[in-house]
Amino acid sequence: MDELPTTGTPEEALLDALGLVAPGGRSPRDVLVRRLAQGDTLLLIDGCEQVVEPCAALVAELLRRAPGLRVLVASRRPLGITGERLLPLGPLPIRPEAVALFADRASAVLPAFTPAVGREAVGEVCRRLDGIPLAIELAAAQLRTLSLEQVLHRLDDPLRLLTTTGHSAPDRHRSLSTAIGWSHELCSPAERLLWSRLSVFDGGFDLDAVEYVCAGTNLPADEVLAALTGLVAQSVIVRDAPPDEAGQARYRMLDPVRAYGARWLSELGETQRLRKRHRDWYLGLATWCELDWFSLRQVEVAQRVEAELPNLRLALEYSLDSPDDAHIGQYLTGTLWFYWVGCGRLAEGQRWLERALELESDQPEPRAKALWAVGLTAAARGDAVAALTALHECRELAESTGDESAAALATQMLGVTALSNDDLPGAVALLRECLERYRTRGELNALVLLAQVQLSLALALVGDLEAALALAEDARQVAADSGERWVRSYALYALACARAERGEDQLARELLVDCLEIKQEFGDALGMTLALERLAPLVVLDAPEWAAELQGAAATGWRDLSGEPLRSSQLRDRHERCAARAKGIIGDAGYEAARRGGRRGGLESAVAQVLERGRGRPASLVGQAGGVAGRPWPEEDRASEGRAAEEWAADAAAALRRKQPAGPPPATPEADAPE
After folding, report:
1. What distance in Å separates the CA atoms of residue 416 and residue 59, rounded to the nearest whole number?
2. Helix H or strand E segment including 505
3. DSSP 76
4. CB 3.0–4.6 Å: which of 333, 458, 553, 559 could bond 606 by disulfide?
C-alpha cells in the first residue's frame, strides 16, 4: 500500500488502500482481518514512522489473528513488536551502484552525459554523499544548471545545494535538508540534542567517546545511551559491524546527516565547546596509545589509531587553528610519531609536524617533542636538510631547558640521519651516545630499542658484524619478552642484513620473511620497502625475474612514501649490482618487463607474494625450514660490544617490569593541555 497519512488512523488508510468499506456495526479491524486472513498474504506498508505506535498495535493484532499474513514495513524506525526482524537498508556501494544511479539520472537532465564523462568526479560526488540515493538524485539534477566540477565543489554545503523544483516527488523529497528534517522531527529532544553534538565527530566513534564529549547541559551522562539507542533505531546513526578489535561497538553518521546536525549545533551556540571537548578526548586517546605502543597491545593500538584517524585529524585542525592551543597541536602530532613512522604515514606526519612547528609556543617541551618527531619522519624519507634543521634546534632547546629525554631523542635522530647519509662513524658515535643517555635515565621503550637496532645496522655497515649481530639479537629478545612487534621486525631486518654480510644468505632470507610478516600487520611501508630492497639481491641468482619484480615494487614503495629512494650509497650500490646481475641472466628487456610488473603490482602485492612463498620455506627462498629467529646465537658471536649491549638490555628489561603503563590517563572534562 502507499504511505500511511499522518492524519486519520492506520485502519482507515488500510481500508482505503484495499478498497474496503466497514459496514455499520463492524469495526475496521474486523473487516481487515476477514480480508487478510484469506490464505497467504503479503502486506506492504510504507512511511509509518510518524504513526508508529498505532501502526505497531494494528500490525501486531493483524498478525495474531491472520496466521497466513506477512507484513513488510518500510520505515525510518522499527515498530518494536514481537517477532519483528530488522533488515537495514544501507547506502548504495559507490561502485557500481551509486555511480550507475548518478549516470542514469544525469542522462535524463543532460542527454549528452555518459558514464564515461568525468568518471572520477562522479565517483567522488557519490562518495561525498555517502551513497545516499536521494542525495545522488538531487545532485544529478543540478547538472541542468551546473557543471559536474561545480557540483563537486559545492558539496561542501550539501544541504544548501541539493534541492529540486520537480513536482513529481513528495514535498519532503524535494530537498535533502527537508528529507533529513523529516527524521529530525521524529526524534525526542534528547535525541535531537545528541544528534547535534555528535556532528563534531568525523568517521566512526564509540560509546566512551560519545559519553565524554556529548554529555552535559540538558543531556546527563546516564541518558546518553538511551538517546544514542533512539538515533540508531531511526537510522540517524549507523552501527558498524563487526565490533572493533577490542570488542567495542562503533557508530558513524553519514556526512549529510552530520552536516544537518552541525547546523543545529551552531544554532545552539555549542560548536566551539563541543569541538574542544572532542579535541581533549582524542588528545587523551593519543597519549594512551603512545604509552601502550610498547606492549602486547601494539597491533591493537595501531588499529585503533587507524580507525580514529579522521577524528585525530579534526583534533589537530582545531588545535592548530587556535593560536592559544599551538602547544597542544605540537604535543598531539608529536605524540602520534609511532603511527606516522610505523604505519605508513610518513609524508602526512611530516606535514602535520611542520605545520605545528610554524606556530609560536611558550611551552618548550611540546615543541621539542614535535621537533624530534619531524626529524625522525624527515630522516626516514631521506629529507636530510629538514631533519638536520629540526634536530639541531631540538637539541639546543632540550639542553637549554634541561629536557634530558628530548636531548637523547634528538641525538638518536641525528644518528639516524648520519646513517642514511653514509656518515657511518658519526652514526655510530651518536647512537652510542643516545643509548648511554637512555641507560643513565633507566628508560626502555620502542624508540630506545630502535636505537639499539639502528646502531646494529651502522656497525654492520662498518664491518663489525659480531657486535651488530649481538645488538640486534638482544633487541629482538627484549622486544619478544615485552610483546613489542614493530621494533622486533626491525631487529629481524638488522639480523638479516648482518647475516647477509657474512654470506649466510639462507638465514638472511628467512629473517626477512619473518620481518615482512610483522611489517604487513602494521602497514609499515618504509619497513616493507627496505626489506624488499634487501631481499632482491638474495634471490637474484635463483629467480632473476622475481628479483626485478621486488625492485619494481620497492620503487613503488619509495614513491608512495614521497621519499628520496636509495639515498645511502650502500643501498644504491647493492641495488645496482642486483639489477646488473638480473640483466645478465634475463637481459635488459626481461629485467625491465619484470620491474614494470612489480611496480604495477605494488608494495602490498609483492609482500603478500613473499609471505606466500616464505610460509612454505622453499629452499630457493629461505633455505631449510625452521630458521634462526627464535634460536640463541652462539657465544662466540658475542663481541665485547654485544656483551655491553646485553647487560644494558637486562637492565632495561628490569626497568620495563617496574614501569609498565597501567592504561589510559583519566580524561579531564575541560583539560587545556597535557601535564
Report:
1. 71
2. helix 505-522
3. S
4. 553
CA distance 522 to 516: 10
Indicate the residue type of 318: Y
Dihedrals φ, ψ of 422, to 5°? Answer: 70, 15
Asked if residue 329 lies in contact with residue 359, where contact means CB atoms within 8 angstroms, the answer is: yes
- Percentage of residues in the chain with pLDDT exceeding 70? 87
The residue to which cell 612547528 is assigned: 357
- Whether the bond between 242 and the residue before it is cis, its omega within 30 degrees of 0, is yes
Give 174's pLDDT tier (boundaries 50, 70, 90): low
Pairing of strands 41-46, 69-74: parallel
- Retrieve residue 459's grid coordinates: 656497525
d(CA 439, CA 443): 6
Distances (CA, A) of 288 to 332, 401, 544, 667: 11, 25, 46, 10
CA distances from residue 440 to 110, 477, 651, 652 in whole angstroms, order as listed? 73, 21, 10, 10
Cell of 552: 619494481
Partners of residue 239 on adjacent β-strands: 251
Provide DSSP, 264-321.
Answer: HHHHHT-HHHHHHHHHHHHHHHHHHHHHHTSSTTHHHHHHHHHHTHHHHHHHHHHHHT
Per-residue pLDDT of 574-613, as tens digits, reads 999 999 999 999 999 999 999 999 999 999 999 999 999 8
Question: For 202, phi and psi rounded to 5 degrees?
Answer: -130, 135
The predicted pLDDT at position 178 comes to 84
From CA 174, how far away is CA 155, in angstroms rounded?
Answer: 17
639 grid coordinates? 663481541
Residue 12 and residue 28 in contact, taking contact as beta carbons nearer than 8 Å: yes
Query: Where does residue 400 rank: exposed (0-12), middle (13-18), buried (19+ CB within 10 A)?
Result: exposed
Q: Which residues contact 474 (CB under 8 A, 6 or more apart)?
A: 452, 642, 645, 646, 649
Give, as one character, the DSSP assignment of residue 466: H
pLDDT band at 355 (very low <50, low <70, confident <90, very high): very high
**Cell numbers at residue 357, please?**
612547528
| Phi-psi group of 580: left, alpha or beta (phi > 0 → left; psi -120 to 50 → alpha; rest → beta) | alpha
State pLDDT tens for residues 222-241: 999 999 999 998 889 999 87
Terminal Cα-to-Cα distance of the chain (whole angstroms):
63
Stretch 37-42: mean pLDDT: 88
70/83 Cα distance (integer angstroms): 11
Give the single-character DSSP code of 41. Answer: E
pLDDT of res. 328: 97
Dihedral (C-alpha) 439, 445, 446, 450: value to the nearest 10 degrees?
A: 0
How many of the other CB atoms lie within 10 Å of CB of 319?
A: 25
280-289, 383-392, 661-670, range with the lowest pLDDT: 661-670
**Closest C-alpha among 16, 20, 256 to residue 127:** 256
